[in-house]
Amino acid sequence: MARLTALLLPLLLLLAGCSGRQSALGPGGADAQVLAVLFFVMLGGAVVLWLFMNGLFYWATRRSPSAHSEKGSFLLIVIGGILFPTVVLAALLSYGLAILPDQRAPGDGLTVAVRGEQWWWRVEYWPEGAEAPIRTANEIRLPVGARTEFRLDSHRVIHSFWVPALGGKMDMFPGRETRMSLEPVRPGLYRGQCAEFCGESHAWMAFEVEAMEPAAFDAWLAHEASDARPPEGAEAQRGAALFAAQGCGACHAVRGTEAVGQVGPDLTHVGSRHSLGAGRLGMAQEDLMRWIRDPAAFKPGAEMPAYDHLSEAQLSDLATYLRGLQ
Amino acid sequence: MTDRHHSDPEVPRPEGPYPPTEAMLSEPVPEALQAEQRRQLAAAWDAPKGWRYWTAVNNSEVGVWYALTAFFFMLCAGVMALMIRVQLAVPENDLISADLFNQLFTMHGSGMMFLFAVPMFEAISILMLPGLLGARDMPFPRLSAYGFWCFVIGGVFVLGAILFNAAPKAGWFMYPPLATEEEGVGSDIWLLGLSFIEVASIAAAVELIVGTLKCRPPGMRVNTMPLYAWYVMVVGGMILFAFPPLIAGDFLFELQRSFDWPFFDPARGGDPMLWQHLFWIFGHPEVYIVFLPSIAIAAMVVPTVAQRPIFGYSWIVLSAVGTGFISFGLWVHHMFTTGLPALSLGFFSAASEAVVIPTGIQLFCFVATLIAGRVKMTPPMLWIAGALAVFTTGGLTGVMVAVAPFDFQAHDGYFIVAHLHYVLFGGMVFPVIGGIYYFFPFIAKKQLSARLSRWSFWLIFSGTNICYFPMHLTGLTGMPRRIYTYPDGLGWGWLNMISTLGAFAIAAGFLVFAYDLLRPKGGQGQVARNPWNAGTLEWTHDIPEAKWGVRSIPFVRSRYPLWDEPKLVERMDAGRYYLPDSPEQKRETLITSVIDARPIQVQEVTGPTWVTLWAAGFTGGAFIFPTFHWYGPAMVSAAFAVVTILYWLWTSTARPPRHEMREAGLGLRLPTYASGPAAVGWWAVWITMLGDATGFASVVFGFFFYWTASDFPPAGSPLAAGWPAAGAALAYLASWGLTLGARMLNRGERSGAAMACLALAPLLAVLGAGALILSVLHLEPASHVYPAILWAIMVWCVTHTIPGVIMQLYCLAGILFGKLRPRHDADLWNSTLFWHFLLLTALVSAAVIGLAPRLL
Amino acid sequence: MTDDATDDAPRHQEEQKAFAEEADSLLAITIAPLIWCAHFLVCYCGVAIYCAKWQQAFSLGVLRAGLIGATVLALAGIALIGWFAFRRWDVRTSGDWVHERGISEDRHRFLGHAAFLLALISFIAVCYVTLPLIFIGSCA
């Protein structure tokens, strides 16, 4: 297996170069690597078999029959139809079964609980031994070289948690917990997306995954556990006041402030995230303003109301405040 | 078999020589007699004219309507696919809203599967099977017509919803809780509209199975049947076991949507996984239900093209039967990512690989036949060759996704979209179009154009590959299914653009094909009778068309009678064989035995009527009105449907014949009436009830599923009342005993006692139903899934009691009015058979409701 | 055409006799796949119920051993069916691989041949379904 990986790695890297950060063929995780190798092995076999089968068919329609045809045909059915596939499929099945348990391996300590919402992700970090989780949303950071366990469930409908570059997917059900684990091997920024159809804005239920060196990850997690940074500068302070006055805190939590709502995503460190609206927009000033003005324009069916009664200046203040929540 | 005839010397049986000798067959038929026979047959089988044309029930009419309707629905679903492709051509496209897109892909999938793929199989089989078997018609022509009208009404209702922006939008798989929570009538349209069509599908399956088993020409033993007939039998059987779980699922689903019984609501003990199980127990065999008939078409085309018998007939039969079985062990491979134990995934992964072997054998048999024969590339063969190239691609990616860990990546992504479209194009679209090119001279007595065939083939073939091949990569680079748009910068844009271009090439190919199919062909003149020089019976058809199907039903001794018996066609035309005439100008066909096709009866088949249309309309109302929660009109409509169907049965089925025996030709005299296992109607009831029992088993499976999945029954929850449940079991037992007794007494010419039994039996049945209701009445079905599933089992059993009671009363009336006599008792046999199953249902219901929760 | 005239003549109670023949022929070809079905269901239901309800009661090893035992039984049953079918097929004495004639003997051999092939496929499929029991040792 290791030799096979070594053999195929250059090819994998080539594909990684030309494929996006949501690609199963540009693996950045241990599981995805195993599955990519599995795919290329099967692809090779499939190409050979396809050429054989169709070549045979083409030849059969062009040749004229000879005396040996009957016996040859019989042998063809016995060998091609029974013996050969039985052996090849048994080998493939064994290969698949052998790697199956590892795809569900238990984690090394850190557990991340993810709950699917329509259409975003509620995320809780449970470091080993922790009694209370560190809450965040719509973005996941993982340490490289360690296996992180995921506990998945859902609020209302079925979703599926999928980061193709790191590993396979797992469905998320209301009322039932499913588990999986991921082990990034290359630091980098990957993208995950909901894979089970979950309603109107299924297309816009994504998230960023950043695989970090362990030390950087620990520092980040410690910071993530802290309360929100107070607003700095006049604009941000106006934005914070507006945030409170508009009742944003009824749905969103900003730890360390009076905003404790649990309906929508936690915004304590929203400014430090790579994307807004579960992978919908970037985190630029303009993105935040557009989003707050009319979320449903970017995510049809989103429950957050439009704040189009706010002026440009007010929206800009709010955006400044939120971007400052690093 | 519990039902066996007693030795009854009075039951008429076949008399005369069989099999016919060569001397008998070579005796000429006088010209004048031939002319008279042709006149009689033409009069009996004449198709209605003018606006009465729509009362026709002949397989040659209904089959064509069926096929064209399915083709039309396919074009509609295809247009939806084009809209989907246009929307996805570029990133962040806002041409189509998310809501409409979700309706489009839901209806594209549902339409292609329920309104095209399965009905197309039924249409082609209804159209072709009598020809392949040298039969006059299907055994129950009115049932075909009824099924067709149900299909039209249901299909227009379901597909039309999208014009009102009210179509279902939770995906063709309708996963709860998304689909149970969906507002509006979309989900109800899907559930009720498609259940309605599934019922029609089961009706067609019953007819096709009985047709294959009982309407073969004399001498066509199981080892000489055309392979298509073998496939029809296997696929019919699969429909029987695959569709009822979905109907049971629909039943539970609609109970949740209408009455809030929480079958799929985890907050009240329900489990969305139950739907996934029931849906895919249907859904995976469904793939093979679509695929096998198309392979069957290839199995007819390949020997003709190779001009030699199929190589490995037994092997192909093995493949069909083996695939039929193993395909029921694959369903969880649609659920590999639901977090089931790895060991469970392993079993389904293993079965998914095992099913590849019989599938491969079929392809190798075709190749072997071609190697051993001298191949002539005809238009049908071009499509079959294309099918092989496309299907092997889909088959090989199928082998890949059957490996569970790889499916963790592929599942719900575009790799799967590519895989399934390769399988369905290669395994269904290409062979079916090939089949239409092949059978068209039989169906329409005209030829399609070889030049247009090449155009449409190369357009569809290249379009398929351009459209779907890039999707493998789109999927592996992370694009999930069912997203209405996607951001730029993930490398999906150019792949999707190529796919969209390919989709338009496919559409262009279909336009060419549709033009070829529908263009006027008046100037073409008469086609050759057997244009491909094939060896099977359908090519003995009359040109120009005669409505009687076959002039006389041949005696067959080989798999390719046209190749092996040079005088066959001449003798058929002369009316030398069986049933060459119709002295009473009735529509008749020959019934033969199951294994060896010995002639046993002449069966009168039904003719044109409006009643099937009315019955379908009222049945449609019973399904469609509940969508809008109009339960009153639905009840009225259902009552009218029952009355119409009773009228239909009373006036046209199982009436005592005027003559007990009929000269069937070649000196053979056959009975004209049969009851019990000798009658086709009894077989139809038996097969239908097998499917019905599967549906009931699925509901009971739900009970035990909840038991494994959670704390069930929840601690402290009230139990069903035990004594009423036990009383219900006894009452049903007594009602069943009286029905059985009535049949025996009636046979013994004790009509009065039989009538007394039949008068008492319905009372006991109603009593039993009442007791069953009483046993659960104090439970609150909306509170938790435990009382809900007990209620559901009760509702299922009580609903089935209604036809049980109607049948008892129908037989009572039959004896009273002389329709049902001591020896003409088919209705009573069929009712008793129904009651065997009803008793089983009632006993299991009583045990599960009254006993199981006390033991678990 | 008179070679088997007596055999072919319509008989009294045709359907009952056809049923009897069916019992040892047409139905016989489905026995091997039915054994596969039963084995598959036992494995699947056993594991599903064990993992949901009985994990505390006994170890998975016991269940796996029991199911592998079921495999041995199933394979023995299928092999037996296959052997009977092979004898019915009777290819060694007749040398007939095709059975295409419309006579009782060919129908008889054909059903033997088909039953034999189905036993073969069922045998392979049962072996496949046993592989997960060997490779996977947990409910995860």
Automatic annotation (TrEMBL), chain A:
GO cellular component, one term: membrane
Catalytic activity annotation: 4 Fe(II)-[cytochrome c] + O2 + 8 H(+)(in) = 4 Fe(III)-[cytochrome c] + 2 H2O + 4 H(+)(out)
Keyword set includes Translocase: no
Transmembrane segments: 36-60, 72-97
Protein name: Cytochrome c oxidase subunit 2
Membership in a protein family: Belongs to the cytochrome c oxidase subunit 2 family.
Cytochrome c domain location: 234-326
Organism in which the protein naturally occurs: Pseudoroseicyclus aestuarii
From TrEMBL, chain B:
Pathway annotation: Energy metabolism; oxidative phosphorylation
Family indicated by similarity: Belongs to the heme-copper respiratory oxidase family.
Pfam families noted in UniProt: COX1
Cleaved signal peptide residues: none
Top-level class of the enzyme under EC nomenclature: translocase
GO MF annotations, alphabetized: cytochrome-c oxidase activity; heme binding; metal ion binding
Main location: membrane
Domain Cytochrome oxidase subunit I profile, first and last residues per copy: 39-557
Protein name per Swiss-Prot or TrEMBL: cytochrome-c oxidase
GO biological process: aerobic respiration; electron transport coupled proton transport; respiratory electron transport chain
Region (Disordered) location: 1-26
Transmembrane regions listed in the UniProt entry: 62-84, 112-133, 145-167, 189-213, 225-247, 287-306, 313-333, 345-370, 382-404, 416-440, 452-471, 491-515, 605-624, 630-650, 683-709, 721-741, 753-777, 789-812, 833-852
One GO location term (cellular component): plasma membrane
Cell compartment(s), UniProt: Cell membrane
Membrane topology: Multi-pass membrane protein
Keywords recorded for this protein, A-Z: Cell membrane, Copper, Electron transport, Heme, Iron, Membrane, Metal-binding, Respiratory chain, Translocase, Transmembrane, Transmembrane helix, Transport
Composition bias type Basic and acidic residues, residue spans: 1-13
Catalytic activity: 4 Fe(II)-[cytochrome c] + O2 + 8 H(+)(in) = 4 Fe(III)-[cytochrome c] + 2 H2O + 4 H(+)(out)
EC numbers for this chain: 7.1.1.9
From TrEMBL, chain C:
Keywords (A to Z) from UniProt: Membrane, Transmembrane, Transmembrane helix
Name of the protein in question: Transmembrane protein
Transmembrane segment boundaries: 26-50, 62-86, 114-136
Presence of the UniProt keyword Membrane in the record: yes
Organism: Pseudoroseicyclus aestuarii
